[in-house]
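Hi team,

As requested, here is the filled-out complex form for the zinc ion run. I kept the field names the same as last time so the parser does not choke. Let me know if anything looks off before we queue the next batch.

— J.
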Amino acid sequence: MLDRMPAAPPRDDPRWGWEFTVENFVFARLDDDRAAADTLTDQADREHAHARIAALRHLAALHSIYVGADGENWCRCFSCEPGSGVPCATIRLLAQQWSQHPDLPDAATGPVISSLDDVAAAGGFAAHYQQQKHAAPRTPGDAAGSRSSTASPGGD
Ligand SMILES: [Zn+2]
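And here is what came back:
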């Protein structure tokens, strides 16, 4: 069950809706991509593009701001913990695929979770661990020697 954010603006608040700008941008770009995919002449390429877009739409849906059956905006994404920010890191990263698009919302720009940069570059936590293990051999008495990463499951 989702926990509501305590500061969800009421519907009559003029600020209501700002939190949807990044997800609206993502879904609009995926609509653009789907229209482009429809024009692909190679069936395998078209099917691959449609599968990628469908997966990204589901990912975006998982990280869209939750609006209940009563229409109430819970002012947090469907999947992330309330402390993950609005918009959450995942929907912001999805938007950053189109970082050169003139309509990219300001809320989608800037660092997301910088402590995960090395993990993302490595290809995941397991690969990052292997890189760290082989790059910085531990010496006796170096209790924190291979813990140079600041990545943690909680982000930053
Ligand atoms: Zn999220």
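Two things worth flagging: Confidence is low (pLDDT under 50) at residues 144-151. The longest strand covers residues 73-77.

Thanks,
J.
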